[in-house]
Amino acid sequence: MVPEIVAENGFRLRGWELTDRGLLREVATDPYIPLITTVPAPYSEEGADAFVRRQWMRTEIGTGYPFVIEAPDGEAVGNVGLWVGELPLRGAATAGYWVAGGARGRGVALAGLNAVTAWALGELAVPRIELYVEPWNTGSLRTAERAGYRRETLVSAHQVVAGEPRDMWRFARP
Question: Where are the beta strands (DSSP E) in 11-163?
Fold first, then answer.
């Protein structure tokens, strides 16, 4: 089960709910988020429900912990995830995050990443967390650095985005 985690500045992390369709409706129109996630684009309620059920399944089968980032007013404004499926093989979990366009610039991603990182390193005793960011994505690069992640190396063709292999910076927290 995905726990609720109190984050800084009044944000909190919680599991996905079927009532989070509004967040998915907004990010389905983002030019980038649907390319690097399984957020349904174009948006449909059936696609949104399937997305939420996939998040539940990831926790049930032990591959990850997807969290909604909730603002102090209760609005769902983003996502942060910890993926642990390869932890036994690689000795590292992977983190990732995205924020709805209307909530950017408010510290949402940083609050979410800090909270999930502290939980993973503390309660779960994960020895290392990695995250990957495209070189042009200055907002995400800054978030990773502000959360204490170290930029390690540019990984060539790390992820396929929009049908093309993309280089990504690997960041890590031991």
Answer: 12-14, 64-70, 76-83, 93-99, 129-133, 150-161
